[in-house]
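Researcher: Let's continue the batch. This sequence belongs to LicD/FKTN/FKRP nucleotidyltransferase domain-containing protein, and it's 216 residues. Same format as the previous ones, please.
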Amino acid sequence: MRKILRKPINSVRSYYFRKNVEHTFQKILDTLKQENIDFFLVFGTLLGAIREKDFIKHDLDLDFGVWENIDFKLLRKILENNGFLLKSQIKLSNNKSIEYQNYIDIKTKISIDFYKFTRKKAKVLYYDFLREENISYTESIKKNGGLFVYKYEFKKFSLDDYFFKSKKCKIIKEYDEFLEKVYGSNYMTPIKYMDTYLITKEQEYIKNELGKVTYF
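Model: Same format as before. Here are the C-alpha cells for LicD/FKTN/FKRP nucleotidyltransferase domain-containing protein:
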C-alpha cells in the first residue's frame, strides 16, 4: 500500500509535512529507541535520505521498516502512549499476521507507516497490497473483500547506522539494491508524481490471499 504523492491537490498537505516532519521524525526516533524497538528507514523516507539528504519535497508520510519479530500490539501501546494514534492496519487473510500499520502524530497530523520485513535464510520478504486496476482502494476493498497481495523478495540485507538530518538512525546497508527494486534503476532521478503500482504488479502475485484492512 505504498504511495508517493501523485496529485497537485495534496500540495497543502505536503507543505505542512515539510513544516513539521522533523519534529515527528525526532519523536519517533526517541520513542522507539527508548523502548528498544528495532526499526529502519524504507521507501520514500530512505529514498529522500539517500538521494536528497532530506525528506522528499512532495512526500506526505514517514516510512519505517520493522522485522518479523515485532509485536504490533506492543508497538501500538508504545506509540499511543507517546502522542500517536493508530489509523489503519493490514493483515494477511490466511495466517492473520499484521504486515502494515499506519499512525498519525496527534500534534502535527503527520502520517507514519510501519512495514514488516520477514527474514529468511538468504532473502528478506515484504508484502505489498494493491487495489484492483482502474478503481480506488475503497472500491477495491468493498468489491473483493480486501486488497491483492504481492510479494517482494530481496537479497538478505543488513542494517547500518546513518546520520540523517543530524539524527542517528538505521538504514538498509545494501540500499542501492533495495531502492532499485522498489523504484526502478533510475531512482536517483526525481519523479514528482511517481506511482509504484506497476512496479509492484511485476512482483509475485499471491493467489488465494488478501490483505484485510481495518480502520480505527
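Researcher: Any comment?
Model: Residues 8-120+157-191 form a domain with the Beta Polymerase; domain 2 fold (CATH 3.30.460.40).
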